[in-house]
Amino acid sequence: MKKWKLWKNIFDDKLPSSAEPSSEATSGFADDENKQENSEVTKSDILCSSTSRYLIQDLIGEGSFGKVAMGVNLITSQDVALKILKTEDTAEREIKMLYVVSILDPVKKNIVQFYEMFEHKGQTCLVFEMLDRSLFQLFKEREGTPLSLNEIRPITHQLLTAFDALKGIGVVHSDLKPDNIMLVNHPSEPFRVKVIDFGVSFKTSENTRGMTIQPLGYRAPEVILGLPITETIDMWGLGCVLGFLYRGRHLFADCEYQSMKGIVDILGQPTDHLLSAGYYTRKFFTENKHWDNPRWWMKTPVEYQMDTGIEPKRWQSPFRRLEDLIIHYPEMEETKLEDQRAFVSLLKCLLHTHPKERITPEKALTHPFVEMDHLEHEIDTSLYVEDSIEKMMVLPVNHSVNSEAEEQSKGGEASSKLPSDNNVGSDTPRSCVSLISVKIILDSTDGAEAAVAIDATVSQGAASQAEETDGVSADQGPPAKVKRSRMKTIRKNFGRALRALFGMKKRE
């Protein structure tokens, strides 16, 4: 209980915009007070579109943007979430971005599914799939208890997948925070998530330099300084979210000055050429014209207040550098310590102060923390690694894997009906692909049949790896000895996976 009280005191029930459940309030649009009372949507109302009728079951959120309601489609009996917008400007921008984003696969790309929009008594209604709860709501239920790295890893992978897809279509979300990340169905699919709220999203082709976007506490340095804005601000936001999930506290303050000071103290001061190009640099820094000193100095709180008339909030950073997140207990398993190091390494890549040096979603998906490369050697001896593999099973997998496994269990020849690595969704990390295939086999077969199937999968994986290696040009290709070594490693890792997963099945 003490822990929960401390966590409540940190936020003091006045959550920064980076953590408020009504995330759309960050859009900055004012309430439309001229709306007539008879246009307000209430519980038990029935709203009609050209194709469907929706019964409002409950109102679950409200902000300056409008309301969020839980409803049911009376035609299909499907549960839905309805976002009822107050202002035309808010609706126009969000609808535009939703249609842009709707070309993405909502399941594979971890984006909320948008169904339709319609007008109800002059108000724009947006219909989405019904999701479970936000990560921020989950934190409240856990009384502020941080997530483990094994819980953070699948969330990380899914968000990177989402932002890689958004980057591919030239969209910047710009409002990432824990309450804009929704759990899909936490009881049945733990930590499967989707990104929501595209109310303040924009195309990368738009000129947004100098605009105040992103929630405080999650705001990238280039936004604070007034530098050109790209999709890299979403990677900064992701780094802040992951830090929050791991610590249970925000990495940076919900105050512009203290946020900038925290960035300088923990990550280092942005380079002089970035500071010199910023529209708002002089708001936080003083130019030093002495050649024997740094060109820019961070203003003190007193100097900042004198120049801007704004008194900075009090803020005590929870640590001095990112490495302080690594906690080593005397009896801690070395694997856990190594995993912490990998996590901090990823945070450093996400929170680089130079936008062009910040890691891309595509590159981050191959980072050791996500790929679990550093855990492979402990797969048959560590319960921690076993748990990490189990948690990653929530990642999207193509239906063809399950269907093939079902056919196999009906009596088909094991070796001819294997779920191949190619059938596993592209959203699944390489290091998990084979493990998932093995687990599917174990779940659908028993005894000797499973052994035959797994042995065939091992051979299939080895052959696939060999083919990839053979595809390399002659001047770059490794010698045959290296190819055989890779095959041996694949078989060895499958052996470890087999022992670990058989153990998991026995306990079930």
Report what the structure shows.
- This protein is of the alpha+beta class.
- It folds into three domains: 128 residues, Transferase(Phosphotransferase), domain 1 (Orthogonal Bundle); 221 residues, Transferase(Phosphotransferase) domain 1 (Transferase(Phosphotransferase), domain 1, Orthogonal Bundle), CATH 1.10.510; 111 residues, no CATH class.
- It is built from 18 helices and 13 strands.
- A hairpin with a 5-residue loop joins strand 3 and strand 4.
- The N terminus is likely disordered.
- One of its GO terms (biological process) is smoothened signaling pathway.
- Pfam families: Pkinase.
Describe this structure in a few short sentences.
With 508 residues, this protein is an alpha+beta fold.
Provide key terms for this protein.
about 500 residues, Transferase(Phosphotransferase), domain 1, six-stranded antiparallel sheet, three-stranded antiparallel sheet, globular, transcription coactivator activity, DNA-binding, SMAD binding, DNA binding
Residues in helices, as a percent range? 40-55%
Globular, elongated, flat, extended or rod-shaped: what is the shape? globular
- Unreliable spans are 1-36, 398-426, 471-488
Largest sheet: 6 strands, antiparallel
Helix-and-strand structural type: alpha+beta
Assign the CATH class of the largest domain: Mainly Alpha
Average pLDDT rating: 80
User: What is the CATH architecture term of the largest domain?
Assistant: Orthogonal Bundle
Number of helices: 18
